[in-house]
Write a structure and sequence with these properties.
By secondary structure, the chain is an alpha/beta fold. It has 16 helices and 14 strands. The chain has an eight-stranded parallel beta sheet. It has a two-stranded parallel ribbon with strand order 1-2. The protein has a two-stranded antiparallel sheet with strand order 3-4. Bound molecules: D-xylose and nickel (II) ion (2 copies).
Length: about 425
């Protein structure tokens, strides 16, 4: 078999003192942290689109990256070689999972029937690679945003024919995800939004998006697909405004259309900042609503206003994120998918390894720090203490709905000004620093 990454041997854990750039310093898959191994906690996934199909193009220029698995004019030959390269990469890196869009693994043909045949051919091979390597599918999805037919959206398209096309693509993508034992399926509304209100019937588009999702829920039952459905919020890009703006918007939308039971959220760090939130806010809001499902682990650049999809490298952020994730019970079907790409000038195949090794290590460190914070219970006690009034007489009465405005007014008239307590933010930030 051709080796596509001949210069790289399987990546091993060598510990914090190692100077080997092709080794993990913190990610030790077998190390047990709070009762589970690091591999079980972190459930790392490599994404197919950026890692194997991304060639460094941007708004100002075509790709800069040349890969040996692209070296053919036959698109299915390229698809075959890429799949083989991908599984070599997954196993050398030692990740348990991968994620893909239908169009990443097999290119579109001239019509849907032919396109689906191409998919079937690749999926059969992927299934064999999965069985041989033990690498599993974290989630699958459809690309209903790149082709020109989707220029005005998929489920929110003004044309019912395009809606039908999108439904057909999702149907097939769900089937192949099921065939590959996918643990989830993601809906990212790439162009489900608008560019100008002058041509947009917003209420109708929202209704249609919900209809499409309801059909997917029905079809999931029909084919017995057991994976978890996720919505991935993003506020803008490519459209000016996307309906799945942020976690809060998605949750309200799902509740309005009675879909909340069938979905969780896939939170992407860079999408959070595009929505003027931060990654941890989106995780915490999802967790507070019982809807934290999976994560697209990446980072943006505060000075660039778009989805730069860089690899995560901020230990403060991964520590706080893992703290929230662990507090919410940890991942079940979800995991940490590196929806990130190397920079345009990182043209060597080895750069793909450096990117993932660093990202896995920074999340492993985050996990270790978060576990220590949980064991110490210091932050837990601070929060407990801050809300302790709610365990007193008045708090209990309010929470159990025994009192209303009249009783609360009487309480206030009797007791006067409430006693205040410090939020201690600086103290707590110092405490957090002491863990890093
Ligand atoms: C794009 C999204 C996309 C989804 C999957 O910004 O992050 O890659 O994760 O369609
Ligand atoms: Ni994403
Ligand atoms: Ni993104």
């Amino acid at each position: 078999m051709t080796e596509y990454f001949p210069n790289v041997k399987p990546i091993k854990y060598e510990g914090p003192d190692s100077k080997n750039p092709f080794a993990f310093k913190h990610y030790d898959p077998k190390q047990v942290v709070l009762g589970k191994t690091m591999a079980e906690h972190l459930r790392f996934a490599v994404c197919y689109w950026h890692t194997f199909k991304g060639l460094g193009s941007d708004q100002f220029g075509v790709g800069t990256i040349i890969r040996n698995y692209n070296d053919s004019s036959d698109p299915m030959k390229v698809a075959d070689m890429t799949l083989q390269a991908a599984f070599e990469f997954f196993t050398k890196l030692g990740v348990g999972f991968w994620c893909f869009h239908d169009r990443d693994i097999a290119p579109e043909a001239d019509n849907l029937a032919e396109t689906n045949k191409r998919l079937d051919a690749i999926v059969a091979k992927a299934k064999k690679f999965q069985a041989d390597t033990g690498v599993k599918l974290l989630w699958g999805t459809t690309n209903a945003f790149s082709h020109r037919r989707f220029m005005a959206g998929a489920g929110t398209n003004p044309s019912p024919d395009v809606f039908a096309y999108a439904a057909s693509q999702i149907k097939k993508a769900m089937e192949i995800t099921n065939e590959l034992g996918g643990q989830g399926y993601v809906f990212w509304g790439g162009r489900e939004g608008y560019d100008t209100l002058l041509n947009t019937d917003m209420g109708r588009e929202l209704d249609h998006l919900a209809l499409l999702l309801q059909m997917a829920v029905d079809y999931k039952k029909k084919i017995g697909f057991k994976g978890q459905f996720y919505i991935e919020p993003k506020p803008k890009e490519p459209t000016k405004h996307q309906y799945d703006f942020d976690a809060g918007n998605c949750i309200a939308f799902l509740q309005k259309y009675n879909l909340a039971q069938s979905f969780k959220l896939n939170i992407e760090a860079n999408h959070a900042t595009l929505a003027s939130h931060d990654f941890c806010h989106e995780l915490a809001l999802s967790a507070a609503n019982g809807m934290l499902g999976s994560v697209d682990a990446n980072r943006g650049d505060l000075l660039l206003g778009w989805d730069t999809d860089q690899f995560p490298n901020n230990i403060y952020e991964t520590a706080e994120a893992m703290y929230i994730i662990l507090k919410a019970g940890g991942f079940t079907t979800g995991g940490l998918n590196f929806d990130a790409h190397v920079r345009r000038q990182s043209i060597d195949p080895e750069d793909l390894f450096h990117a993932h090794i660093g990202a896995m290590d920074v999340f492993a460190r985050g996990l270790k720090i978060a576990a220590k914070m949980i064991e110490d219970k210091k932050f837990e006690k601070v929060v407990e203490n801050r809300y302790k009034g709610w365990s007193g007489d008045l708090g209990k009465k309010i929470e159990s709905k025994q009192v209303g405005f009249d009783e609360l007014e009487a309480h206030t008239l009797k007791n006067g000004e409430p006693k205040l307590q410090s939020g201690q933010q600086e103290l707590l930030e110092n405490l957090f620093n002491s863990y890093i």
